[in-house]
Amino acid sequence: MLFRFIYNAALTVFACCAAPKMWRDYKKHGKYRNSIKARLGKDFPQISKGPGPVIWFHAVSVGEVKAIAPLAQKIKEAFAGCRLLVTTITETGQAEAHKSIPYADAHGYLPIDWPSVIRPIVKKIAPDLVIVAEGDHWHHFLSAAKGSGAHLALVNGKISKKTFSRLSKLPWAAKQIVGLYDLYCVQGEEYATRFRKLGIKEDRIHITGNLKFDSSYPVMGKEERCVWHERLNNRPVIVAGSTHDPEEKLLLEQCRQLSKEFPDLLLILVPRHPDRFKEVEGLVKTSSLPYTTLSILEGDTAASLQDKAVLIVDKMGALRDIYQLADIAYVAGTFTDKVGGHNITEPSYYGIPVVYGPHIFSQPDLHLLAQEYNAAIQVHTPQELYNTLLDLLKNPDKRRTIGDNGKKLFQHAQGATDRTIALLETTGRLTGERKKT
């Protein structure tokens, strides 16, 4: 009771503090227009019971949705009559869920974790199995699902160093926040150790690897590749994926310096969040570097990249396509200590050499893998970033070697989906429903 009182009070205070910024973003950028009512529990999707289990997948945003997509697909294909509900927090995550998991029986936003909002919804859905991706632990959601008889599974599980440090000082809170799952399928030993130290029983924790290595990676068709080949005309290309403030300024300055030796260099900026597209365009305009945007290229067949130094990708869901154009990929969120990195192995699927910055605390397992396979180069200062990019631009053989190492990394790291499904079957909520193949 004491924990719930403190949790509800903290959630209310957080909501009140966040409300002014959310209102500004709503009015200025149109954020939350599609989700605000749903987050308050309005018009939550209905899902009817079938002959198989009701499985509720929850993922915060784009990255987590992409991670669970192959898992959801295999479960849907393998188990007769199962019904899938997929929820997200962000609108970009919801768009990705419709794109990556179109076969789900229902999509929706996870309502805010006030008991009066979430508990009646969980009771009505009555899931048999709740699968949470990576680590979005909402107490009332999880406890209501557990109370309704659902098994709870954390997949692709992780826990940040900061969260672990906080929870280790509050073991009574850790039990209620991260201790409710029946099954923990975690990405690596570092995360397994953290969960153990928080009091999670050993027999519930299993190292399954990273689901992101099993996700679907698009490959450009011959016609689209020819179009880009004509646009680029063998120019060297650096793709900066999932950028945050202040990384765009840093990269624009790098581009200006590198263009002294490579005057035809093209920098492709892919901002992480769509509400920053205009802001990033303003930064590029201020830099005086000639630029265009992907929306202009797609809307005008006569538009050209010939005299442009920068291309801004003002479109969501295009990053993996854009990585295929790169000679070098800089994975962002790593030159800001507010983020701590994104998926630094994503370009490796395409054999693209990767460079990333000093802040990688959000992806420690991927950092270790990339270093183990020599599939990426970590830099720590802007000068080191410049030197590394220049060296790679001058040495195509080195780029090729690093890219080939990345492909090997991908091949060896796959299989987490099958390992996770095998463990989910032990919950008893999938057993007996497997289709014959």
UniProtKB/TrEMBL annotation:
EC number: 2.4.99.12, 2.4.99.13, 2.4.99.14
Location relative to the cell: Cell inner membrane; Cell membrane
Domain 3-deoxy-D-manno-octulosonic-acid transferase N-terminal intervals: 36-214
Keyword Cell membrane set for record: yes
Record carries keyword Endoplasmic reticulum: no
PROSITE patterns tied to this protein: PROKAR_LIPOPROTEIN
Chemical reaction(s) catalysed: alpha-Kdo-(2->4)-alpha-Kdo-(2->6)-lipid IVA (E. coli) + CMP-3-deoxy-beta-D-manno-octulosonate = alpha-Kdo-(2->8)-alpha-Kdo-(2->4)-alpha-Kdo-(2->6)-lipid IVA (E. coli) + CMP + H(+); lipid IVA (E. coli) + CMP-3-deoxy-beta-D-manno-octulosonate = alpha-Kdo-(2->6)-lipid IVA (E. coli) + CMP + H(+); alpha-Kdo-(2->6)-lipid IVA (E. coli) + CMP-3-deoxy-beta-D-manno-octulosonate = alpha-Kdo-(2->4)-alpha-Kdo-(2->6)-lipid IVA (E. coli) + CMP + H(+)
Alphabetical keyword list: Cell membrane, Lipopolysaccharide biosynthesis, Membrane, Signal-anchor, Transferase, Transmembrane
Gene3D superfamilies: 3-Deoxy-D-manno-octulosonic-acid transferase, N-terminal domain, Glycogen Phosphorylase B
Single Gene Ontology MF annotation: transferase activity
InterPro entries reported for this sequence: Glycos_transf_N, Glycos_transf_N_sf, Kdotransferase
Membrane topology: Single-pass membrane protein
Protein's pathway: Bacterial outer membrane biogenesis; LPS core biosynthesis
Family in the record: Belongs to the glycosyltransferase group 1 family. Glycosyltransferase 30 subfamily.
Protein function: Involved in lipopolysaccharide (LPS) biosynthesis. Catalyzes the transfer of 3-deoxy-D-manno-octulosonate (Kdo) residue(s) from CMP-Kdo to lipid IV(A), the tetraacyldisaccharide-1,4'-bisphosphate precursor of lipid A.
PANTHER family recorded: 3-DEOXY-D-MANNO-OCTULOSONIC ACID TRANSFERASE, MITOCHONDRIAL-RELATED (PTHR42755:SF1), 3-DEOXY-MANNO-OCTULOSONATE CYTIDYLYLTRANSFERASE (PTHR42755)
Protein's recorded name: 3-deoxy-D-manno-octulosonic acid transferase
Origin species: Simkania negevensis
Gene: waaA
